[in-house]
From TrEMBL:
Native organism taxonomy: Bacteria, Pseudomonadati, Pseudomonadota, Alphaproteobacteria, Acetobacterales
Cellular compartments per GO CC: cytoplasm
A GO BP annotation: L-serine biosynthetic process
Descriptive protein name: phosphoserine phosphatase
Reactions this protein catalyses: O-phospho-L-serine + H2O = L-serine + phosphate; O-phospho-D-serine + H2O = D-serine + phosphate
EC number(s) from the headed UniProt entry: 3.1.3.3
Organism field: Komagataeibacter swingsii
Amino acid sequence: MTVLSRRIMLAAGIAAGISPSLPARADGCAPVLAPLKWAPRTRRVIERLIATHGDTAPGYDPARRPYAVFDWDNTCIAGDCEESLLHYTANHFAFAMPAETFARATARDVPAHTFSGPFRTVDGQNIRFRDLHADLCADYALLSARSMPPAPTDPVLLSLRSKLVFAYDAINATCHGDIACRWIIRLLAGHDAGGLAALARASNTWHLARGMGQETWITPATRAGRAGIVARPVQTGLRLTPEIADLQSALRQAGIDVYVCSASLEDVVAVFATDPDYGYGLPRQNIMGVRMDWPGGRLGLDAAPHWPVTYRAGKVRAIRQTLSGPRGYGPLLVCGDSDGDYAMLSEFPDTRLGLLVNRLSSGPIGAIASRAAAQLSVPQPRFVLQGRDENTGEWRPSEQSIPMGSRLPALVAHS
């Protein structure tokens, strides 16, 4: 059995049926979570939540089913499935749009400004977006005009991929989050639903088989172009999280509905979240993410109407539009990992518990982590932490996490 097969089998049920189908529970007993690599106290708090609000509780009302909302990237899995898909698509030149559409997609909504600070050339020069865009278009046009796929060492391919990840990182850091969310998705334009799902599965398989870590993508000296030579760190690897698969299954068995609300393209997340082979097996209609139009059955460049960008406050708007508004009450449990989840973790008065995958972050999500750390001895905390080793992508039986490149666990970010 390959390493990848073992990982998928682990998440798909710990071979014996932990998830997505738990063993039958005793009558009148709430489901319990497999210990796996849970922080023991965090697991106990969540089990108590399920027992108190699930269908074995005296006050449970099946007409007002409780529900939980999960972020996807770096919460339900280790890694980001959409950024990983960008890396896979760039590495394999698996785009599905002509050069003219690529030029429109990569220019759309991005202001004509100059990148500076950490987003300079390797020799320290500022970069105008119009120069970076010109290089992207030139590389893409050359590659798309060829009849054969490029070799992995092709300088034009290496140039395109380095400047794509540089552009995405720079836009993500310097523009409104909605712009970055749409920008990375538009790179998938032209795929039909079946082709996009196949591409996402191929990317998942490729990244699940790779080690967790970082590598640097740099522009070849022969392809400096107008913007110059750039370099960006790229995260490698994805990991399934059997503890989350088990939790989601336990919630559903207890009559608590499970939803996902992600800032990635909904259709890409759904490949991961709904396929039982990955261990999650959630209903497709319970997956919320960024939505786009599909003219002629192919992914387009325009946003789907009447739907928010599911990022930060947009996640709250999506939950209110589809869940808390129609139902009249908010989520019981919210699970996340980053500033993008801060709003949905904290905005709903009905939420009894927030589960935070501890990535040792600062900022707004760091404030929640600090609050959770201060509540470690509180019997019914508002927030709980779950540790992870970023070097392996696996959870730790502790609230403390180990950052990438380190061996030392920590509870909160160092100031």
